[in-house]
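seq as requested:
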Amino acid sequence: MRTAASPLFFGCDIIYAMRRTVITYLLFILAMSGFVALRIQAGKVMAAPAVTAPEPEEAMEETAAYKEPLPEAESIPVLAPPVTDDREYLWRGTVEPVSEFDGLIPRIVCWGDSLTVSLDGQSAYPDILRKLSGCEVINYGVESENTAMIAMRSGGLRVNVKATVIPSDTELIPIFLRTENDGHVFFLDNGDAGINPCSINGIEGELVKLNGAYYFKRSQKGERIAVDDGTQLKTFGLNDAKPDDVLVIFAGTNDLPDAKSAANIISLIRSMIDTAGTDKFIVVGLTYAGGIPEIDRVNEEMGASFGDHFVDIRKYMLNYGLEDAGIKPTSQDIEDINMGEIPKSLRNDYVHGNSTYHRLLGEQIYRRMQYMGYCR
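struct tokens:
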């Protein structure tokens, strides 16, 4: 016969039942968490790309891909054939003069711009001419001058004085100068070679430039002289000229001429020769192709005007310069020659030649003098 349960036992049953429920619930949660974690990990593994060991050939290709690529072989320019020269005998071989040397040792007078200037008294072409000839060589090179400015210094382009009075004392007096065609005068801007001492109306003195204005100072005291308008200012180069001088004129680079303006350069050079009163002269052709696109035409015009007196030194340098200098051409030299430029191995900069260039130039000018019968 059952008896009614006491309250104490009834409470214990409830607590026991609740504990079992909680434990069962916790175990369920843990089981579900583990299941979810396994599913996530499996998904990651399936998403990752498969990694397989490369085959030997593939491994070599992959390694090679990281190597530094080999440089491409440098393209070496090919030297263009030399300009056809049917007068090579003028440049090379035994000199066969067209006339005999008359036995006089002439003086050589060189007119030009920076391509004539000597910086050390040893290396420029006038210095080479001095060594080859053994005679006196005058260097009248002044940098940055064009042909007209050079002709002014030589007297080939006449420079006149406006009317003035030269006092008896040796004091500076202002004078006003114009060329014979009423152009500006550019004396003493970059040098005074061939200018001083000069003379006005037979009075010797010195030309001075101060603040852009010209002044004259007579060398010695003397009689006060009135100077007529248009009286010529005679430079030292003009006063000192001798009929037996051999002129060397290397002018025109700073004009940057074209085929049309070449006639003006030729006219000025011709006037320099005529004013000097000599029939012995050498005219040097232009070389700066970079600034004178029509340089071939300009040199052709000069050659047609001056004949055998004309030395086309550019043609020589392009055809024979490096060989005669014993220089193996570099890639840059070959590129320059193909472009019609004097090769880099013969230049100091874009237009000025180096000492080797000047030696070759001096030798070719002297060779032409021998050919013309001006010297032994």
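The chain has two domains: 90-155+239-372, 157-234.
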